[in-house]
């Protein structure tokens, strides 16, 4: 209860980085705009995201946080009754979104230290499966899968014409050890993320989908059904955050590494 924080000294329930304050962002004149061209996303922000993850701006779709990005991707890719494979355990809002959209959810297990059981996944993949969903790093364990496992999963999915959506919202918290964004594994892969979990900027609602340009166009058409423009003040503040991302990385590192040592 946000109004009764005197009840606890520390919370272990929060799933994101300790929230930034306004003072944690070094803002310059013009960093906050009220209106601007952002029908398909604010172009300077799309370009900043693209540079950060090594893709073209045409591969970036803006969304309200990573949960919003996941929902948007599901809505664009799935019809009611489509089969989706999703890991167990997983982040519950992924299951809720798929259920809301009428998908037929089937589960595969993260076993043996939360690794993938590729034989189990192979047995579940049929031509009725439209999408495979997982988080890497895994949520809730935090385990980062070997790149060869993800690549093999992509090959298995491609054989049946399925896409692979990787929620990589915790990727950046691995700092120098983070693998390239999963979108680089091929056109059947989509990657979702945001500025929330790794950077403590949940209030900006800056999320995104990285995918092939044709899929990105499909996402934008679906997004247009929900809202015609994003929040320009949030977009311009998010752009300011990307400009100083190295500072925010060091802030996150200064929080995580001492805490992890204590744990």
Sum this structure up briefly.
By secondary structure, the chain is of the alpha/beta class. The chain has an eight-stranded mixed beta sheet, sandwiched between helices.
Order of helices and strands: HEHEHEEHEHEEEHHH
Overall body shape: globular
Q: Tally of extended strands?
A: 8
Backbone CA Rg: 18 Å
Low-confidence stretches: none
The largest sheet has its strands arranged as 1-8-7-6-5-2-3-4
Largest sheet, strands/sense/barrel: 8 strands, mixed
Determine the strand fraction and express it as a percent band. Answer: 15-25%
- Total number of helices: 8
Helix content: 25-40%
Ends apart, CA distance between termini: 25 Å
Compute the average pLDDT. Answer: 93
> Structural class of the secondary structure composition?
alpha/beta
